[in-house]
Amino acid sequence: MSMSLITAGESHGPGLTCIVEGLPAGLQLDQDGIDRDLARRQLGHGRGGRMKIESDTATVTAGVRHGRLLGGPIALQVANRDYENWEERMSPWPVEADVPEVHLPRPGHADLVGAWKYGTTDIRDVLERASARETAARVAGGALCRQFLEALGVTIRSHVVRIGTVATAPRSEPLSIEDFAAVDDDPVRCLDPEVSAQMVEHINVQRKANESIGGTFEVVVFGLVPGVGSHVSWESRLDGRIAGAICSIQAVKGAAFGDGWDLPARPGSEAHDEIFFSDERGYYRETNRAGGLEGGMTTGEPLLAQGAMKPLPTLTKPLRSVDISTRQPAEALRERTDSCTVPAAGVVAEAMLAFVLADAYREKFGGDHIDDARQALASYCERVAWTQR
User: Which residues have CB under 8 Å from 318's CB, separation 6+?
Assistant: First the structure.
């Protein structure tokens, strides 16, 4: 059994829609949990004026009755409150008003290539869908997947490890769920208060200089059983599926697992996780350099996945570009924008990992009802003598 997650909607259109198919019947949903994830996506020092307008909540229009999944597709809608300011420009139907076209593509955005590909002279036809506003729908759908995984003992968290030139130090001890208790209270969702203050200051300095700032986030997944994913074909390797999901997030240019970006410089003896066994713990590792994945499969250790996000392409001091209507030099489009969205990108990455992992769990454990999935999981853990950690 496989799952699907599809979104629809534009940045300044009436709203966003997400449809998730493949979750089992009987799962009890927490409505507040969905809206809580949407609110978390709007967090972070460096956000722009749009976050003062939007206060995202999800309306379920299909697939749920009295708080329980029915087994069919689930449809969610997230309204765009800013649509009232864009109603003529983004109306689904023709309007009498003269709506000017946008002809100034931004370097680093989908604007120019999208206009070529889809044969439009108005870049707004491209930029509205390419906008990271679309991720609100993904977070809503990912919240459903998160709640399915939590019912099976899996917990997903994220934090920021770098903004611009400011980065946290390598950890000497592995993270625990408890370490994330207050992460969303931090202005940049960083686990180190001193580094967080430096990140905030860096954002302030760069924002005054009319710059945008990128960075790196890490998603940590606790409670995964070993053997999810497979080595037998390239498309079933879980690390490839996760990397694709992370890199599908707007402005993300790289993904890695565990110590992935540092491993090429190390000798083999310092790159792998040695295997041990004890009667009390069974098989275990003392390190997690692989980030909880070997051969495309989970190892039972926490899954550690990082994403590298470039600076946002919309700048308050625009870069050089070309007017596509005249082909003359011009400054790129300047619209309302954020200075830094790395903290929010971590929350979006949580949603994407929740979908990929929920899909992998559904493939492995199946079940039309949530109790069937729980029973299959328990049977598997018994067969491999695994106690969830």
Answer: 104, 106, 331, 332, 333, 334
